[in-house]
Write a structure and sequence with these properties.
Length: about 110
């Protein structure tokens, strides 16, 4: 009789805890949302890109702009600064400022 009461108590406890458990997602299937699909596609296209270049590409791609398909995407301001700075190495003062201004405005 004692075992029967113990079993009944255990069963009652199991039922009561399952009632308070977090409900399962109703759509727990493998169907992905359009945003998840877009993220996967953009991530595949961003293979090989790193750092700021990848970040800029992902931003453009995820926004849905058609510019993501073109490989010659416009350079970011930071990319221009790096390029121009490398081109003008060795210059100093006003000469450097003038060269940077010309390079960045191009």
């Amino acid at each position: 009789m004692r075992q029967l009461l113990t079993l009944a108590a255990a069963l009652a406890l199991a039922v009561s805890t399952s009632a308070f458990a977090a409900p399962a997602k109703e759509s727990s299937g493998s169907a992905m949302t359009p945003q998840q699909t877009r993220m996967g596609d953009c991530n595949k296209q961003a293979a090989g890109k790193k750092g700021d270049e990848r970040k800029a590409f992902m931003k453009t791609c995820l926004s849905g702009n058609s510019a993501m398909a073109t490989p010659a995407a416009p350079m970011t301001q930071q990319d221009k600064m790096k390029k121009c700075s490398g081109e003008n190495k060795g210059k100093k003062g006003d000469e450097y400022k003038a060269a940077m201004k010309t390079c960045l405005s191009a």
